[in-house]
Structures are given as structure tokens and as C-alpha cells.
């Protein structure tokens, strides 16, 4: 298995090249998605300088966090069932999958601090993907004003699993447009400055289209 530091150098070079191609100036936060690797591999990621780690199951998150001694910033990147909110919400720094009102209610009920949330939008419209439609996203965000433990820091989406770059780019571009529409509303509880999009196969395209957080598993940690 390749060393994480070597993988990180390769990915960082690709990000820099993507920023140059698109004349992008935004800072990029790399989330090392450790959901399929051991705690030891996650620790190696932190030692390589990757302090942002992503998990998609409560069990994996809690098991790894118990061995990390508060070294990491934790992102929950999977769909979160309302009944499991109490297990994870006070163990994470960011949630990338806020997509329904009942989940927001449960977060607000259980959280002991403000949770930085990405609203998940299903831009591609694929039935296999979670998330709100583009049309429903802004009304949903506006409905969150009543929840004092939720801050909408940005939007998240997943591109289709395809080799067609035009399709991938369209999805990311549409999310960027939607983000700009939210920003224009000047909602104090939803500054929405961030875009969580791009994974191992398409993070460079995402960076070109405005991503500020990329979620990379296989290409980074295996």
C-alpha cells in the first residue's frame, strides 16, 4: 500500500494544476475519507498532515476517534439516520448530509454546540443518491432559521459515476450556482461559503468548478 504522504503529494499537485487551469483562488480543504481503512491508517493520515478525516458510519467514527486523542477534525459524510444522531452529533465538527427537516430537528435537540452543516443536494437527480432537489434546497435552508444549533456553512453533492467529464462538470457547476443564490440571501444562520464536492475520481474537476472541500478516500488512504 502506497504511503499516504506520497499520495497526498500527488493529489496536492493535481489540485494546484486544477487551480491554475481555472484561475481559481479558493483554499481547498482535503478530507481524508477513512471509512474503509484501519485506525492505524487514519493515524498515518494525521501524521502526514491530514487533520480533516471523514467517516460515514457511527461505529467507524467512534472507534477511530477513541484512538486519535483529539488530533483530528471529524466530518460525517454519510447519510445520517435520525435515530443515530445522538451517537455522533457531539463527536463531529462537520456534517455533510443535512437533507431533511426531521434530521435538523433531531440535531438541534441533541447537539451541545453549533454544528457546521452542509446541505446535501442531489443535483444529478439520480434515485440512488440522497439529497434535496435543486428546487427544494433554498426553501429547506430558509426553514432552518429556527434551529440555533445548526449553521449552514455550505452545500454538498455527489457527481454521477461516469467517465463523461461534461456531465460531472455540469453537476458541480449547478451546485456552485445554487450556492451563490444562497449567499445572495444574506442569511445569518446560512453563510454558505463552502462547497463540498469532488472525490477520488473527479476532485480536480470539482476544484475547477469551485469546490472548497474535497472528500478523498481511495486515491489517498486506500
UniProtKB/TrEMBL annotation:
Record key words, sorted: Pyridoxal phosphate
Organism: Ureibacillus galli
Matching CDD domains: PLPDE_III_YBL036c_like (cd00635)
InterPro entries the UniProt entry points to: Ala_racemase_N (IPR001608), PLP-binding_barrel (IPR029066), PyrdxlP_homeostasis (IPR011078)
N6-(pyridoxal phosphate)lysine modifications at: 35
Domain Alanine racemase N-terminal: 7-222
Summary of the function given for this chain in its UniProt record: Pyridoxal 5'-phosphate (PLP)-binding protein, which is involved in PLP homeostasis.
Classification lineage: Bacteria, Bacillati, Bacillota, Bacilli, Bacillales
Keyword Cell membrane: no
Assigned protein family: Belongs to the pyridoxal phosphate-binding protein YggS/PROSC family.
Keyword Cell membrane: no
Protein name (record): Pyridoxal phosphate homeostasis protein
The organism's place on the tree of life at top rank: Bacteria
